[in-house]
Every structure is written in structure tokens, then in C-alpha cells.
Amino acid sequence: MDSETLLARITDYASRPDPYPLYAELRAAGPVVRQADGNYLIGTYHEIAALLHDPRMSADPRTRGEVTRKPPFLRLDDPEHDRLRTLAMRPFGPPHSPGRVDAMRGEIDRITKELLTSFEAGGQIDIVDDFAYPLPVTVICRLLGVPHEDEPMFRAWSDAVVKAADVRPDKAATGTDQAGDRARIEMGEYLVGLAEQRRGHPNDDMLSAFVNEPDPALRLTQEELAETAVLLLIAGHETTVNLITNGVLTLLRQPEHLDQLRRDPDLLPRAVEELLRYEPPVHLRERIPHADIDVSGTTIPAGASVILALASGSRDPMRFHEPDRFDPTRPDNQHLGFGSGIHLCYGGPLARVEAQAALGALIPRLSTARLVQDPPPYRQSAMLRGPRHLPVQL
């Protein structure tokens, strides 16, 4: 009976500081665990990876007939997902060639150094508010062409959208979906307005690239532009904030690895991959089967809500040696930190560059730092898990 309440216990805010014992309980209960509310919960690596690549699994909430409004392309299925994802990625640059992300490396390093000037006085700082949040926000604002002074406005919108997207039992009873929809619409109108100002007068930003696309076949409609721009702005900073903050928290808890990375900074790219496995920014994803589907002997009916516990899969001992140990030298680290399959996080390359720049600059300054509060206060979201604040004494 306890296994039928796992999703409720995982999403309970009291579990936010350490959901990993519950993930272990989930894996022990079986590859597929039906919940009391009718959801199906899956926490084993191989089953999750297979379902993320299974075309019978839909990301579109309209599959259940619960919503009629077209979702952003992150929640669409192919071929529409592929078309919109391709159009959204065009301003980043051609595949397999240097593009905007590579061109931003110097700028990311410069922004990082600017933010670190506040650390020089010592004392107490908040890693989230003073560093991990402003870095990716500044970067995505510059990429899209959003005035940074408008950040307080879209931060409130982002919080509402993320809250509405969270995975939780009995979501409909909370009423936050309507608030999230309003925030998404208002944010979309704001971003389309900015883009329209650049029609015929382009700057070197992505909004300009979208509205000044010369090929009619490659242009986004106004609705598609609104949804795509909202998704880029939110996805461009939300997961990266958690990745950087979780990284600092992990290293301060394990000073031997902090010292290891300080002595050997070439390990940093592998350490970021290990953080994406060990303390990932994204924990849960929902999918809906188009038809009845068998998973390890359990039939999941068409239209059911299937919750994939990505963070559990990345700590599955059937896939990773000593999965509960942080190892910045870990080989063969095919984690689920950015998902997998057609919906693999398209912002992953940017998040990796930002995390490497951020942690590379922070590590030499953390040698005598200590956590003021452990565990720190966490954000409400169970899906996008990370500290809301991380006070550190320098």
C-alpha cells in the first residue's frame, strides 16, 4: 500500500531536501508502480530510457483531452515538435558548427567575473540571488534581446509557469494551471511586442532573427513565436540556476572533491556531467501513451499519466556503479539529467557552458567557505528541484 503513495510523498515539500531514499523505495517496488490516484510511476533507468525513445509515448497533454490550447513545442509530438524545434534552433546556428552559444563563451566569462566582484568583500552571500540566478538570466536576455531591466517582471511570470508545470497528484484541484496560462499569455504578448519592434530593424539577437526570417517557409506564426520565445526565456535560465546551485551545495558538502577540482580544473566538464546525474536540475517528466503499452510485464492503458522519475533513473544501481556516490571522474556517464530521445533538452549545450564557467570561477573562492544552512530552503517545485536560497559564509 505504501508504494501507491510514492508520488504523493516524493512531491510533498517535506521531501524536497532529500528525495533519494524515496527513489530507492520506488526502484525496489518494481519498474512500474501504479499510484492510488491512477498515475503510473517509473524510476528505473532502462525502462525510463526506453519510454523516452518510444513513439507511442506522447508529451502532449491534449492526448488525455484535458486541454485544448496548443502547448509549447516542448510538449508536442512529432512531426509538429520536430518542425517547431528546428525553427527555434535555427538562430542558435547550423548543427555541428560554431553558433551563438560558442560565440557567447567570452561574454559568459565576462558576466561571471562581474558577478564575482560582490564576493571580494567576504561575509555572507546567497549563491542563488547573488550568482546562480543572475548569470543565466543575463545570458538569455542578451541572446534573446530582452532588456535586463524587465527581469523582475518576467521572473514573476516564470515562477507562475513553472509552478503550473510541476508534477503533483491532484493537480487540477490547486488552480495553478490557470495562473500559469495567464502568465504564459502575458509573457508571450510581451516578447512578441519586443520582436515586432525589430521587424525591419534587426539587432543581433534571436527575437530579431525570428521576425526577420526571409524564407516564408521558415517563419513562425505569431502564436508560435510567442510560445517559442516564452519557452526559450524560461528554459534558458530555470534549469541552469538549479544546476549551478546544486553543484555548489554538493561541493561544499564534499570538500575533498572541491579540493580535487581546484587542483585539477580539467576535470570540470566531467564534474558537470556527474552533477547532472547526481543532483540534476530536472527530476520528473510526464508522458501519456497513445495506446496500451507493456512495460516489464505491466500494461499501462492508453491515456494514463506516466511519471518518469529521471533523477531516480540516474541513480539506478542496475546502470551506475555506486550511484549514490558523487564521482567527478565517473566514466560512461549517460545520465538522464537533460532527458533523452526527441525531447532531449535543447538548451543543454548552453547550460553546460554556463555551469562550467560558473563553477570554474567559483571553486577557487570556495576553499574557506561554509554553508550557513544545511539543508537550505528549497523551491516548491518537485519537477525542477533546487535550493531557493543557498547562504554561504565566505
CATH homology superfamily: Cytochrome P450
Number of helices: 17
Order of helices and strands: HHEEHEHHHEHHHHHHHHHEEEEHHEE
- Quickly name the level 1 CATH class: Mainly Alpha
Integer tally of domains: 1
User: What is the global morphology?
Assistant: globular
Low-confidence stretches: 172-176
Give me the side-by-side strand order of the main sheet. Answer: 1-2-8-5-3
Beta-strand content: 5-15%
SSE topology sketch:
Layout: H1 6-11, H2 20-29, E1 32-34, E2 40-42, H3 45-52, E3 57-58, H4 80-89, H5 100-103, H6 105-116, E4 124-126, H7 127-132, H8 134-144, H9 151-165, H10 176-197, H11 206-211, H12 222-235, H13 238-253, H14 255-263, H15 268-278, E5 284-289, E6 293-295, E7 298-300, E8 306-309, H16 310-313, H17 348-362, E9 370-371, E10 391-393
Parallel strand pairs: 2-8
Antiparallel strand pairs: 1-2, 3-5, 4-10, 5-8, 6-7, 9-10
Helix pairs in contact: 6-8, 6-17, 9-10, 10-12, 13-17, 15-17
Features:
394 residues, 17 helices, globular, Cytochrome p450, three-stranded antiparallel sheet, 45% helix, alpha+beta, five-stranded mixed sheet
Describe the protein.
This protein is α+β, with helices and mostly antiparallel strands and 394 residues long. It has one domain: Cytochrome P450 (Cytochrome p450, Orthogonal Bundle), CATH 1.10.630. Helix content is 45%, strand content 8%. A hairpin with a 2-residue loop joins β6 and β7. The longest helix has 22 residues. It is globular and about 55 Å long.
